[in-house]
Amino acid sequence: MLCSGCLELRNAVTYEVTFNATWSKDTHPDDFPENPHFSGLIGATHNEDVSFWEVGELASPGIKNMAETGSKDPLIREILKAMLQRHVLLPISEDGLPDSPDEITITIKVSENYPLVTLVTMIAPSPDWFVGVNSLPLYQNGEFVNETIITLYAYDAGTDSGTNYTSEDNPTDPPVPIFQIEGYPFYYNEELIPLGTCTFTKLSDT
């Protein structure tokens, strides 16, 4: 298994991760698209020396491509580069959801030295919208978290100025920082509606 230091895996903890997508015409009726789906999950377990995306920061080429097209490249190369620098324990690359609502469950490994998880997927179709978690800590106060549930809201990568799900390509020049979308089409009945949840449940030590 490719890892930053396989000795870390001796003390790693396994988590089950369930991405439960609730995004549907019922939850988000405004111009809901045909063929709603999410691209392949991609991310990493890592330490504090690296961050792959951040609200208020410009999207990397990898995040841009993931959010615009659902492609895992070049984000996977950014992750592997960080792995060579010993900032990543293990990359995450899994299937997406061919429909929504739906759910998928995967497993990941974290350790005390690599306690963070980043995971993203494109909202499809969309101009450059995605959901995900950024540097979520699963080791806190000297122990591994038993379970945590993250509510998933939509983010804009700041690289395409399309205003609806099926907008034609309209590159944002210059790009703007990543931001949470707080209006159309995710704000309905005076409430910002999430697109699902991501549940992290500790299973066992390695």
For the biggest sheet, the summary is:
7 strands, antiparallel
Question: Helical region count?
Answer: 3
The CATH superfamily is identified as: F-spondin domain
- CATH class, anyone? Mainly Beta
User: What fold name goes in the CATH topology slot?
Assistant: Immunoglobulin-like
Count of distinct strands: 15
What's the order of the H and E elements? HEEEHHEEEEEEEEEEEE
What is the alpha-carbon Rg in Å? 17 Å
Would you identify the CATH architecture? Sandwich
In whole angstroms, the N-to-C terminal distance is: 14 Å
* Mean of pLDDT: 95
Helix-and-strand structural type: mainly beta
Give the low-confidence spans: none
What amount of the residues lies in strands?
35-45%
Helix-strand blueprint:
Layout: H1 7-10, E1 13-21, E2 37-38, E3 42-46, H2 61-69, H3 75-84, E4 88-93, E5 102-110, E6 116-124, E7 129-137, E8 139-140, E9 143-144, E10 147-152, E11 155-156, E12 179-180, E13 187-188, E14 191-192, E15 196-205
Antiparallel strand pairs: 1-5, 1-15, 2-6, 3-4, 3-6, 6-7, 7-11, 8-9, 10-15, 11-12, 13-14
Helix pairs in contact: 2-3
How does this model look, in words?
This protein has one domain (7-205): Immunoglobulin-like, CATH 2.60.40.2130. Strand 6 (116-124) and strand 7 (129-137) form a beta hairpin. Helix 2 (61-69) runs antiparallel to helix 3. It is mainly β and 206 residues long. The longest helix has 10 residues, at 75-84. 11% of the residues lie in helices and 37% in strands. The protein contains three helices and 15 strands. The relative contact order is 0.27.
